[in-house]
Amino acid sequence: MRYGMLCRRGMGMPIIGGSDSMATRSRGAGAGFGWLTNGIRVGFERPKLLFGGAALLVVACLLPSLITVPMQIYAAKAGTPPSAATSLTTMAISLLYALLIIPLYAGYLQLVSAAERQQPARVSDIFMPYRQGEAWRLIGLGLANFVVYIGGIAIIVLAAGRGIIGWYMQALAAQASHQLPPALPGSFWTTMALLMVFGLWMMGFYAISLGQVALNRRSVFGAIGDGIGGALKNVLPLLVFALSSLLAWIVAIIVFLIVALLLGLIARLISPWLMVAVLVPLYIGLLLLMFTVMFGVMYHLWRDVCGDDVANAMPPPLAA
């Protein structure tokens, strides 16, 4: 397959484009473990770039809380549940911002690509999709993914768990009247299992479709088709990735808690403020690591399924 090379102004990272038809590949089960290990590795190869970009992304993700949290605090102090208008306003703000931040996800994915290809890039390049007028395509992809997500859940609930909706409404009524919740319907665990499988597929679908638009300049509908096909072809490696991630997360949490406990005890012996000064950066570091790993996994998943021989088509890396 031939690829046209398009180099973005201000970034030495080439963008793949010019292909109207794409072929997705199926990978072996071990690819799922490779996505995880590569996702962990990538952040430490160019930490200044990727951890700095992750910090900007975290700040951007937290901005809506400056509006929604004061509204929730005010309602709590008033001692009354938030009105329908307040709830709808909070939901609308959250949904709108969730769409507006998708171009930043694409920009960070491009940073990961630049890091992997040893191309020059800057932390502020996560805003490149907005600067170059590509935000609307990415927002359109976000809307389409949202429709796929809601549609998939609706199909599963209607097909396998019709009693779930009635049970949920009864549980809400019981909670409001301070009564015990009703017994779980017989289809509850079947529905939960199907939803977990769908969530696993959705993870692959989202990574592939976002990578196709952000890195391969695909149309929104083309990226959706690639995401659907690519995720279906790679359910087994996605399952291996999920199990590997669960084990890695358990180990990471145990290590983190041990380190935080030891540092906290030592710092507390000296000063309570020192304990805060030690633990807060530790938690921030864990959050940034989570972001770099997540997008590193997304990049390598996309590259394995849709990237073909992109690396062979790339020009020699530029000096940063």
TrEMBL record:
UniProt keyword terms in alphabetical order: Membrane, Transmembrane, Transmembrane helix
Transmembrane segments: 49-75, 95-114, 135-168, 188-208, 220-240, 246-266, 273-302
Domain of life where this protein originates: Bacteria
Protein name: Uncharacterized protein
Species in which this protein is naturally found: Rhodanobacter geophilus
